[in-house]
Amino acid sequence: MMRSTRGDLITKRIVFFDATGTLWYPKTTRNNADPGWVYKDRKTRDVVHEHLIMSPTAKTTLERLNRMGIMCVIVSAVPYPLKKSKVQLENTIKHFGLSRLIQEYHAVNMVDGSSKAKLIEKLLKKLKINKNEALMVGDGYWQDYKFVRKRGIQALLVDSKYQNSRAAWQIRRAKHRIYKLNEIIKCV
User: How far apart are the first and last CA of the chain?
Assistant: First the structure.
C-alpha cells in the first residue's frame, strides 16, 4: 500500500531505479537482510547475477512504464571500482532479460550519500528533463530517498523487511514509500 497521494506527484518522463534491494535481491536472503553482502561474499562476488532474483512485480512494472513511454534508468552503487560495477550491472540486466526495458544504467561510487542525487541531476540536465518530471525509486533511505528529495526530485522508498529491523525510524520518516514496485504506476 502506498503512503502518499497522487496530488503532489507530477506526470513523470523518467524513473530512476536503484538496483540491488529494489529491482533484484539475493536469492537466499531476499529482502530480509541487507543485500550488499552478495557483492562481498567469496562464493558470490564473482558471479553475483547468478545469486540474485528479481523483486516481485519488477519486470512487469518496467514493461508497463515502457508502454507508457516512461524512460527507465538504473543508478546503482555497487561496491566495486566503477568499471567493474558497470560490467556487473550489465551482466545482471542481461541475466534477467531487461536490456530492452532499461534505457540506461549507471554505476556510482558512494563517496557520500549524495552521489546518486548528483548523478541524477547531471543525467536530467543532459536529457533536458525537468526535476519534477523525474522519480527515483530505491530501498536506501539516505542515498535513494533523502538526498534525492533534498535536490528537488521526487522519490519513493521501497519498504523492506531488513530496513524495518535496522532503521525503522528512517522508514517512518519517509513520506512516500511503497511495498511493491507495481505501486509506482500510481505515481507516474
Answer: 16
